Amino acid sequence: MANGLNLNSLGTRALAMGGAFVGLADDFSAIYWNPAGIALFQKKYFGFFGTDLIPSSTYKLDVDVPPVITLVNAKTETKHYLTGLAAYYHPVNEKVVVGLGVYVPSGLGALWDGTDFAALPVQAGLPPNPTINWKSKIGMVTFSPALAIKVNDKLSIGATFNINYAMFDLSMWAGATEAPMPVVDLGQYEESMTGWGYGATLGVLFRPVEKLSFGATFRSASTIGFKGEATISGMTDLGEAMIPPTPLNDTSDLEREVTWPMWLAAGVAFRPIEGLTLTGDVQWTQWSTIDVMNTVFVDPFWATIMEEGARPMYWDDALQIRIGAEYKINSYAFRAGYYYDPSPAPDRTMNVLLPNFDFNVITAGIGTHLDGLQLDFGIEYLMGKERYVPPTYVIMDPDWETAQPGIYNMNIIVPTISVSYRF
Fold this sequence. Notes:
Blueprint: H1 12-16, H2 30-33, E1 45-64, E2 68-75, E3 81-91, E4 96-112, E5 134-150, E6 155-173, E7 188-209, E8 212-219, E9 222-232, H3 235-241, E10 251-260, E11 263-270, E12 276-285, E13 292-297, H4 300-305, E14 310-312, E15 318-329, E16 332-341, E17 359-370, E18 373-384, E19 387-389, H5 391-396, E20 406-422
Antiparallel strand pairs: 1-2, 1-3, 1-20, 3-4, 4-5, 5-6, 6-7, 7-8, 7-9, 8-11, 9-10, 10-13, 11-12, 12-15, 13-14, 15-16, 16-17, 17-18, 18-20, 19-20
């Protein structure tokens, strides 16, 4: 899925225009991009947006001993990540509009064939293990009541209160124990957690003249307090191998806090001629809030062997540049866009279950309307830049010890559809 944990492409029309929508914000996706745009809705307004994220990833790990030995040559299984947005807006009077939106602003995931990773235990002197599942799914659903006010004919403001429900699931190889413990293949590691968090979005939209508008949006950080349970299938085998044999729990409750970052955006929309709209956005995300991901394992023995659950991430803040265009002919609208989405994750913490890439993204779409009904179709294609994590760095540099060495590639296709109605 898209970089970090943010999708940043909600609404078919906005997506088809490269996600450069903060300075326009004039359809039902405004609750996400810039809630100030809600103040311009003069009729009751309902909209639904659905999208299917289809990632394609490859990962290869060669060991140059020599001769070169390929331990892993993997390609993700085809997986469809369905997300969307639904929103309703109700004008209270000529200046005040209220609304409610439910949408998926964040997600990240991967699904690999475990047989492709079967040779990894060989590095620890253990036999191959093809039975391990390798997959991840991290996402958030936001419920946002909204209020927008038209201050005058040129200025509007808006705000939402964001109630966030998130999920965090991981499956991977648990690794092997090291001395002074017996060397044991710990088998399958799985965790499943959910949690709640809260935040707010503030927006302003300024239209000095009919052909020009400026917008700005601030979305606050939201810390999710996750709780759930983890399982390590080989914990019983480890207990039996210890001297003396020690009964060990194969499950443990766990807790983790993850902060979805602050987001700042500014945009402009310009209509140079009749029917043509050009947009541009600058969007900044404070990914540096994800520095070290700490997990608290309630079981004392788990806490010991999991090194207190600290996983360095060291993500960096990122700036996206987005441009878009829309041209209307009669009842049809044709759209296109581009944006650059840099990865917040450094090479030194890269791994197959939390993949991040520098993406060049092209978008396109078409829409049509009949009276109050609007129907839109769009497509987004994300082209990831190849990443390489050298095995020697992971072996020799302690700052790289949590990285998974190898060559990574990813592309994503995202078809979308929206249906909306003003009445």
